[in-house]
Design a protein that fits this description.
Layout lengths: L4 H16 L4 H7 L5 H12 L4 H6 L7 H13 L2 H39 L6 E4 L3 E4 L1 H27 L3 H9 L3 H22 L4 H12 L2 H15 L16 H13 L2 H58 L1
Helix pairs in contact: 1-2, 1-6, 2-3, 5-6, 6-9, 6-13, 8-9, 9-10, 9-13, 10-11, 12-13
Amino acid sequence: MAVSHKKLASWYLQMAHSLEAGINLSEALRMAGGPPRRDTMNMADNITAGFAIDDMLKNVPSWLPQNDRYLLSAAGSSGRLPETLHKLNEKHLQTSENISKAILATIYPLAVLHLGIFLFPVLDLMEFDVETGTSMNLDRYFSALIPFLLPFWFLLGGFIVLVKKSNPIVRWVMGIVPGLRGYRKAQAIADFSFALEAFINAGAPMDDAWYGSGLVSGDPALTKFALTVSQEIKKGKAPGSILDTSRVLPFDFISLYKNGEKTGQLDTVLATLTHQFQAKANSRLAVVSFWYPKLLFLLLAIFIAIKVVGYYAQYFEFIYNFMD
């Protein structure tokens, strides 16, 4: 059973407040609402039975995101669970907002595409014949409509399923579509910065923090680089000394990270980077949602104009033949 980002955000916030009020984790899990009740009660029972948080998380169904498990595991080990729960609350609220914006941005283009699919065969309804005159042909309309409409619905449904399963195909599609490519990159860095700050605040070792943040980003190139940095950290190197070799992270990220590392304000810098790249991702998404519907509408208008010209050409040919 899937749990919405809004419900997860509310659940994390409820538990954070309970823990800050001095309530133990088992009782906090029993009191908080949002995810399936049976699952949260099982989680509470596992904690009461003496399970470590890592072991308890292994028994939680798939509604709990894998990225959240990394952060909760690190926070549970360090005793900084309330802070991490607040961070996860903020993250899921942001994700919920982004999804709502994406859905709203998608409704209009989908409506335009459906309008185009239904309009294209309309002019084919009319048949001109010198002997029988003008007639309507509904069979011809539906035979022209169905080959476009059904494959479109099939592809749309398949893409929605791939999005829900976070399939790599979705990432590949976003990587080749102008506008979405920039959004995907900025969002990955925002997610990476958020996770790295959360891991550090949770008390995770720096090598684990980098590796886990790479996984959270969801970007293969960033994940690979984060693994390289993690291995170098284990050899005694500071992350800042390795960043210059990166072709994945932009200059402004590298510069600010090094400053934060030198001044001891890395968590503050990472919070700034998260907001900076999230704003950039939101801006790219806004541009896409503004221009793509207009381009689709322009293409639709061009196709309709072509159809209308073809219709009148056929009509005038019929008149000419009739008078002849």
